[in-house]
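Please fill in the sequence for the structure shown.

STRUCTURE ENCODING:
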């Protein structure tokens, strides 16, 4: 089979490596992919948002199955366009991807169907929003309605900060049209859990839970990033919490989407907070998480291609999705300065005895075949072990064997999870 994967980060590299385990896979094209994954896929210089070019490529290259990984092409209708052209594809339709594409949609959906989430108000008028902020409880959370590269959420500790956030989104349009409508939300507290799931619209099969580390610096300090590392499973996601999530969140969400005529087929990501009043939804994503995928897929014992094809066809069965009882840890190595300004173009090398899994996110191939850093998050180093503490220790041991100038990584990925396990 010839496969096509849309996207070019560490998440896509993890998906590609897992898909390759299926013996019927002859070739995988990554659009655009990146130079660091060239050994695993044929990278083609077509942008993930260039839907027409993606569909043309798929038709001209007799692609048997496509996987659309990032949010942008999903929200733009890439899966619909591929299917119209006769190419089966994994990922939600444009109608279903709105669950991530619009926070107003997802909040209203949860309210309508009684799915637990933070209390909220929606504003399309700046002055009304500012007036509301005079009296609302503080801290408060301001969210741009549309996609904003994961940066559209501001947690305001004071009224002043909250007002500044509203002005920057609604007047200065720092997130463009994404900020035309905003959600002002109750500030919740509690540990966060990411649960990725496969759903074909009829059943929902959760994958192993995970924990992201979004802040740039140790101790959850510094700016928000795309994610500096992950561990799986997440110790806060106990069997009891999992049962409640299935009953109160996962199944009701699938049913709600169906009732709204927006059946969701693909990977639905539940960003959860385990509050004192129980699990609540912080966000939905219409796709695999990054870097959650990098710890979840190495623990998947089953065949990813079979699962994805069944998900797309509406024939998913729970027994198709089996996870190992092991743990995994991903440490992201970034360019120093990320998520702000950083230098790039430094050669990446690994010692001969490197024994981890390497998922490359931001790299390009030089003419002489060298792999050069080419992004903020450069790569993820992943290790798997029976116990979480061993996976974490092993990931850090392998990080020492990967080299590039200006490398920066957090030293405490997994620390919070290990402390929670001991408590
Ligand atoms: P999001 O982009 O929706 O994932 O939000 C980014 C981060 O902001 C989340 O991972 C949470 O840590 C935090 N966050 C979002 N909404 C809330 C909320 N209502 N209360 C507290 N923290 C929140
Ligand atoms: N790691 C968070 C996300 O993928 O949105």
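FILLED IN BY: designer on duty
SEQUENCE:
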């Amino acid at each position: 089979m010839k496969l096509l994967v849309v996207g070019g980060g560490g998440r896509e590299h993890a998906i590609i490596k897992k898909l390759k385990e299926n013996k019927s896979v002859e070739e995988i094209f990554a659009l655009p992919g990146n130079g660091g994954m060239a050994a695993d896929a044929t990278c083609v210089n077509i942008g993930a948002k260039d839907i027409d070019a993606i569909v043309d490529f798929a038709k001209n290259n007799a692609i048997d199955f496509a996987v659309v990984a990032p949010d942008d092409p999903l929200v733009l209708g890439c899966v619909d366009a591929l299917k119209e052209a006769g190419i089966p594809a994994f990922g939600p339709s444009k109608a279903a991807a709105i669950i991530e594409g619009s926070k107003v949609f997802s909040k209203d959906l949860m309210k309508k169907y009684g799915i637990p989430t933070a209390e909220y108000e929606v504003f399309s008028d700046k002055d009304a929003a500012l007036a509301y902020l005079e009296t609302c409880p503080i801290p408060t959370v301001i969210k741009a309605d549309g996609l904003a590269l994961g940066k559209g959420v501001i947690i305001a500790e004071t009224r002043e900060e909250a007002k500044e956030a509203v002005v920057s989104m609604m007047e200065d349009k720092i997130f463009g049209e994404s900020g035309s409508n905003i959600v002002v939300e109750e500030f919740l507290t509690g540990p966060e859990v990411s649960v990725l799931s496969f759903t074909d619209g009829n059943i929902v099969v959760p994958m192993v839970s995970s924990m992201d580390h979004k802040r740039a610096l140790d101790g959850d300090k510094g700016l928000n990033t795309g994610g500096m590392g992950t561990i799986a499973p997440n110790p806060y996601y106990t069997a009891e919490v999992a049962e409640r999530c299935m009953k109160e969140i996962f199944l009701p969400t699938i049913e709600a989407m169906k009732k709204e005529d927006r059946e969701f087929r693909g990977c639905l990501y539940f960003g959860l907070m385990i509050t004192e009043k129980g699990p609540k939804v912080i966000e939905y994503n219409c796709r695999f998480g990054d870097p959650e995928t990098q710890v979840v897929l190495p623990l998947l014992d089953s065949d990813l291609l079979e699962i994805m094809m069944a998900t797309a066809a509406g024939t998913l069965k729970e027994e198709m999705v089996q996870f190992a009882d092991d743990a995994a840890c991903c440490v992201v190595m970034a360019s120093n300065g990320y998520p702000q300004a950083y230098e790039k173009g430094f050669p990446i090398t690994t010692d001969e005895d490197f024994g981890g899994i390497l998922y490359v996110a931001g790299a390009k191939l030089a003419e002489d075949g060298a792999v050069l850093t080419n992004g903020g998050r450069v790569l993820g180093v992943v290790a798997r072990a029976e116990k979480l503490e061993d996976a974490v220790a092993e990931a850090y041991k392998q990080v020492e064997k990967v080299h590039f100038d200006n490398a920066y990584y957090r030293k405490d990925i997994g620390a919070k999870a290990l402390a929670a396990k001991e408590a």
